[in-house]
Specification:
The protein starts with a strand and ends in a 17-residue tail after the last helix. It has a single domain, classed as 3-Layer(aba) Sandwich (Alkaline Phosphatase, subunit A), CATH 3.40.720.10. Strand 2, helix 5 and strand 3 form a beta-alpha-beta unit. It is built from 11 helices and 8 strands. It is globular and about 55 Å long. A 3-stranded antiparallel β-sheet has the order 1-8-5. Strands 3-2-4 form a 3-stranded parallel β-sheet. The protein has a two-stranded antiparallel ribbon with strand order 6-7. Helix content is 41%, strand content 13%.
Length: 255
């Protein structure tokens, strides 16, 4: 589904909204240099489900350390990979996830985080004209194909809710106007990169959300356009904990 990120297209605020369903103004995570993520820990969907259903959870993350606070702190067990290359870390995340999925009894919630596509986008540009960027996307696509194949072999495959989401879009900085380039440098402080995000440009807010589960039909778009705030309510609905007072909407209820 074509979807929308936050206006602040920075990873920590975006992933914090994914985990909690809270807007940036509510969770007050505005940038990546944050030391206190306590509000994320106390309000995320894992803890909300654990309080009622006693679920087990596992997290696997690649190379971007803030995910240890945003995601890994909340799960029952986790592993973090920080190899010499981000791609190698991603591959270890993929292999570990498949090992877990091959177990007869595995955690109720598993959250893997892959980082290579973003890193390549920064280095070579978030653009279909960048061969390196397209290669990185295809590498991830192949890995996730293996993950889906492994889930489909499980006896409980039809009970799974699978969500694939990214935190933000991006641009090749060469495609920005002179004014936008100046604004980008002033707002992000980033230098010597080819691709970027962090502003509220449409290209930086454009994301995808892919959902598969018993409540979803094949290949259809949702209107109005889904946002990152819809992820948490969608997961809670899967566990019969949906609350209409949440900021986002359960995607199962949008037909």
């Amino acid at each position: 589904m074509y979807s929308k990120s936050l206006e602040t297209t920075i990873s920590a605020p975006c992933w914090s909204s994914v985990m909690t369903g809270l807007s940036e103004e509510e969770h007050e995570i505005h940038h990546n240099e944050v030391e206190d993520y306590n509000i994320i820990y106390s309000t995320n969907f894992i803890n909300k489900i654990r309080e009622v259903n006693g679920i087990t959870s596992y997290g696997i993350a690649s190379s971007w350390r803030p995910m240890c606070q945003i995601m890994l702190r909340s799960v029952d067990d986790h592993i973090f990979y920080d190899e010499e290359s981000v791609l190698e870390s991603d591959r270890k995340v993929n292999n570990k996830l498949i090992d877990i999925l091959n177990q007869e009894i595995c955690p109720d919630i598993i959250i893997p985080y892959f980082n290579n596509v973003d890193m390549v986008g920064h280095e070579y540009g978030f653009s279909i004209n960048s061969k390196h960027y397209i290669d990185a996307i295809e590498e991830f696509d192949n890995m996730f194909g293996d993950i889906i194949e492994t889930i489909n072999k499980r006896l409980d495959a039809k009970k799974w809710l699978i969500i694939i989401v990214t935190d933000h879009g991006g641009v090749s900085l060469n495609d920005l106007s002179a004014k936008e380039s100046i604004q980008y440098g002033e707002s992000t402080g980033c230098q010597n990169v080819v691709g970027g995000h962090g502003m509220s440009l449409l290209q930086m807010q454009n994301i995808f959300i892919i959902v598969n589960g018993i409540d979803f039909k094949n290949h259809y778009e949702l209107f109005p356009q889904p946002t990152l705030l819809d992820i948490c309510p969608t997961i809670l609905f899967h566990y019969s904990l949906y609350n209409r007072n949440l900021n986002g909407r359960s995607l199962q209820l949008i037909k």
